[in-house]
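seq:
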Amino acid sequence: MQNIFEKKTFENEDWSKRKIASFDISNCAFSGCDFTGADFLNTKFIDCVFTRCNFSNSKVSGCSFRNVSFRECKIIGVVFSEINKFLLSWEFSKCTLNLCVFSNLDIRKSKFTECLIKETDFTDVNLTESDFSNSDLRESRFANVNLTGSNFTGAKNYFINPTTNKIAKAKFSYPEVLALLAAFNITIK
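struct:
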């Protein structure tokens, strides 16, 4: 039996360490909810908004995210590379994303605005036309990533090797854009 939530609002609820498997959740709003260690196996999120929610160590294997917004959320240790990649669309605004994995995904046009994205793995990812504006990408890894047309205006602390990543038509701010030269082991005076 599949559980269905439609057009519901959830505030300050504790869903930590719960198994929330094979749910269909659409047009729902979650505010201040704790999903620490929750297992969302094969759950579908469609047209949902999460505000100030905690997703530390949540499991999202097989999950679908379609038109989902994360606002001011804490997302730590989540392996997004195991999600359902079909019709994926999401945005992250003012979120903390630490130790997350986005490898092997086609997440073009994703938005990560004003986020702290620390020690997060973007390996073999298509991030074409994505938006990282005003985000702090401290110690995050970009390897074999397509960043064509992406926006890094106001972003900082990124290390993107232009010889192993596609950055054509991407937008960067000065002086942070000089970080693109770090891969060449040169001195700038």
